[in-house]
Amino acid sequence: MGAAPASRNPPGLGGRNPAMKIVTLVKHVPDATADRTFNAADNTTDRAGVDGLLSELDEYAVEEALKIAEAGDGVEIVALTMGPDGADAALKKALQMGADSGVHVVDDALHGSDALATAQVLAAAIAKVGDVDLVLTGMASTDGSMSVVPAMLAEHLGLAHVGFVGELTVSGATVTARRDGDVASETIEADLPAVVSVTDQINEPRYPSFKGIMAAKKKPVETWTLADLGVDAGAVGLDAAFSVVREVTKRPERTAGTVVTDEGDGGVKLAEFLAAQKFI
Amino acid sequence: MAEILVLVDHVDGAVRKTTLELLTLARRAGEPAAVFLGTGFDAARDTLGEYGAAKVYVVEAPELEQYLVVPKAEALAQIAQSSGAAGVLLTSSPEGKEIAARLAVKLGSGVITDAIDITVVASEIVTTQSVFAGGYTVTAQVTRGTPVITVKPNAVTPEATGGSVGAEEKVAVAFSDAATKARIVDRKPRAATGRPELTEASIVVSGGRGTGGDFAPVEALADALGAAVGASRAAVDSGWYPHAYQVGQTGKTVSPQLYLACGISGAIQHRAGMQTSKTIVVVNKDPEAPIFAMADFGVVGDLHTVLPQATAEIQKRKG
């Protein structure tokens, strides 16, 4: 990243003066293979009763940041998460993979925050990290799956957002991204700083090495509250949410249908079922 | 009655089916007004009117085609504010959700994504969503600002009103500096397959690891049924089918009338993308495959023999 502007401001978290600073957003989510549920009292996602882990889709963002760091000099990677106590497990994984430092935004007032509040808090945290050139995120969390936080974050920061990126190159003050949509494959150029969210097609995330796991124990992790960020606690959390869940209903288990074993006529039986259901 | 804005999803004026679904839903909550961004409105006018758009706002500006979504979000925000609309509906596509996200921040409004239904309760718009891989149904409503709602394809059958566009308003938008920070420098249209679009199709036939890389029987059955073709993550990761056709958490979410899962075991990653399908048919060699638990009809057998036989039988019945 030799083309960094000379006017770059003083060092951030790492205490160095990086040529490029990347923030990767990581989220600690309930394990999707476990029985996920809601808190009965307020219809929020139950984050305590289920084992959590780093949202799998965020690993691709961490990996992409590491690849950019390995290709250039002086790239600093800050992993950022927002969530209750324990959510820093997601940071730990990012640090083990190779991120330089971590920030955990934690505050009781954040419980029940919606996407809009989440984006507002993350934007404030990114501003506090300071001099960020690139924000990398996954394409969606594996729990809420709304995919809207990166764009909201970019809106708050006044930055470009390029979503669903399958290939990324950084050159000087520009990122070039390829994304494969439903009707076309597009190449996008965006000015840095920018927010980029990447798909699971972009790379193959590494497993933390033993060396990486040992090194992560010594990496700095800061804990910030809403007061540290200058965000009003009344503007976030469940009571300030812009939308409200009225009712949560567990979907009835699908009743098992008819299963036949193919004895040479399985295809005919399949066609008969489709005909009986008026699909043909 | 207050206006409900519907952002028109179109390619050069060819209106996509999802827009007609939105117009149909918008009628439940107010007076549907279409927002048409870009070129080609003349080709879209009759269709929009026929499905109930009494009014259309039209914005034509080169920025809408040259830059990513921000100009569209700015145009829609301006119209939402000036019209005093009671709600904004968009398609739950990646672009629709991104516009919705920016719009919600600009308007200071709540946003709900991936609604599968919309009703009006005590004059409030109430959405239904399917969450946690279809394990739960949630109803919700926006409580602050103008509700911004993205709706999944196939939420409703489009119903024509036989009306026509009564009022057209050309809107000029002054775009901000932020609108031009992400430039589209190249665009290669995907080759047409001749099959329906995956997320809009009423029937989807998907193949997984069990195809062994041979999608011909899956495609042949799809064509006999007029269906779209999908693929599991295992099949896509193996390089057997393009990622654009992946059904699941990291691909497309589909909710067709009929979903046929062929040689797919049914990992949570896949179920998340198809669990809300109305009827599910499974063909798998392994009787223990978890996907059989979701099947309305299942065949334990090799897809390489079962599918061609089914295809031949369907063609015979169709004459």
From TrEMBL, chain B:
FAD binds at residues 209, 232-233, 246-250, 263-270, 284. Binds 1 FAD per dimer. Its cofactor is FAD. GO terms for biological process: fatty acid beta-oxidation using acyl-CoA dehydrogenase. It comes from the Bacteria. GO terms for molecular function: electron transfer activity; flavin adenine dinucleotide binding. Keywords: FAD, Flavoprotein. The keyword Iron does not apply. Belongs to the ETF alpha-subunit/FixB family. Heterodimer of an alpha and a beta subunit. This is Electron transfer flavoprotein subunit alpha/FixB family protein. It comes from Jiangella aurantiaca.
